[in-house]
Amino acid sequence: MINKYTVCRDDNKYHAWPDLLLTKKGKLICIFTEVEHHGDRRNSRIMLTESCDRGRSWSKKKPLTDYSHPNTCDGYFNNSRISDLGDRLAIVCDRIVNGTEREARVSNIYIWYSYDDGESWTEPQILYDRGIVPDKLQRLSSGRLLLSAHNGPRDALSQYLWYSDDDGKSWSDRITVASDKRYSLCEVSIYECSDKTLVAFMRENSFKGIECLKTISYDGGESWSEVYGTNIPGVHRPVITKLCTGTLMMTYRFMHGKCRNAWLAQNIFMAFFDEETAKNTEKQTCTSIISLDYDRSSLSDCGYTGAVQFDDGEIYVVSYIVDDAPKAQIRGYSFFESDFVIDNH
After folding, report:
1. DSSP secondary-structure letter at 298?
2. Cα distance between residue 288 and residue 250, in whole Å
């Protein structure tokens, strides 16, 4: 039902926080961070690997960036995302200038572009003091670009965005996507519905198993609603992918609370629902939740994902996971939406 593949494994390096893109020419590009450990960000750099056979085999990893400082965590590359803007590919990544994610910090967003299907990348554009863990740089149906990241104290994070109506030459002032004293809101995945409504799905960072939370925009991201709940519990770093059937698939780390016999997280989940559920504010919705993988390691750490779908309907997901490796590896998964439905009518 779910087929598994090794995307990148190096037992001397920790590989984490991947994202995935299917280019117009049919090539898969996986981007991820190489680092000492989730809790040790020395020697971090952003890496790329490619597949031309639908993720069954992958190229040797190659660096997008140089190493960060070998002796301190200053200036480390954190979480990268890759997207197709139509006329070019884009990579965004936060680089934390000083301190760690858990401390007060300054973080800049780096943006690279490719005009040749990912064969080469421009020098980065740097947007200063924006936040951490950016969403994919995305182009709305209107042509507007959205860039989102979160910031603030670890127990009171808020989600922000900036938009550009001139193809990234200039950016708006900071807009608050979500800020609520009850929650610590972060790691957004913004989805544009067919009626141009935007829904921002977010992680709640209290580690209490609180459900995925969301806000809604009806004006292209210039203003946002109050925070609404969903019926998807324990969501960390949601990623929304629209499937060819119109179904929305959310892939995420399932974090119900502190895990037994684990370093951090053990489960990678998927949730399937429709656009009306995405926009619903009453939690009276229909959602299917399915396990994608379980990290068996006593040092488990997993759950940031990227996903694409091929023209024939096959879905391919990447995540990082420790499992049978001494350090975290990037793993791929292929399946069809129909694998999870048996029609008994």
Report:
1. T
2. 10
Q: Is 153 exposed, middle or buried (0-12, 13-18, 19+ CB in 10 A)?
A: exposed
Nearest to residue 27, comparing CAs of 122, 113, 116? 116
d(CA 55, CA 272): 22
DSSP 94-129: EEE-SS-TTSS--EEEEEEEESSTTS--PPPEEE-S
Q: What is residue 155's predicted lDDT score, i.e. its pLDDT? A: 83
Q: What is the DSSP letter of 302?
A: -
Classified as helix, coil or strand, 22 is strand
Global model pTM greater than 0.90: yes
Backbone angles phi, psi at 107, to 5 degrees: -135, 135
Q: Could you tell me the pLDDT band of residue 1, with boundaries at 50, 70 and 90?
A: confident
Question: Which 3 state secondary structure label does DSSP give 230?
Answer: coil
Residue 36: burial class (beta carbons within 10 Å; 0-12, 13-18, 19+): middle
Q: Over the range 292-330, which residues count as b (16 or more CB within 10 Å of their CB) and which as e?
A: bbebebebbbbbbbbbbbbeeebbbbbbbbbbebebbbb
Helix (H, G, I), strand (E, B) or coil at 45: strand
Strand 248-254 and strand 267-273: the pairing is antiparallel
Give kind and range of the element (H or E) at residue 335: strand 329-336
Residue 196 has which token pair? 């141009």
CA 70/CA 237 separation, integer angstroms: 28
End-to-end CA distance of the chain, in Å?
21
For residues 13 and 327, the answer to whether their CB atoms sit within 8 Å is yes
Whether 8 shows a pLDDT value over 90: the answer reads yes
With tokens 């439905």, the residue in question is: 341
Which two three-digit tokens encode residue 189?
């995945």
Give which of 106, 104, 127 is closest to 173, Cα–Cα: 127
Question: Do 159 and 186 meet the contact criterion of CB atoms below 8 Å apart?
Answer: yes
Q: Are 250 and 188 in contact (CB under 8 A)?
A: no
Q: Has domain 3-336 been given CATH number 3.40.50.300?
A: no
- Percent of the chain whose pLDDT exceeds 70: 97
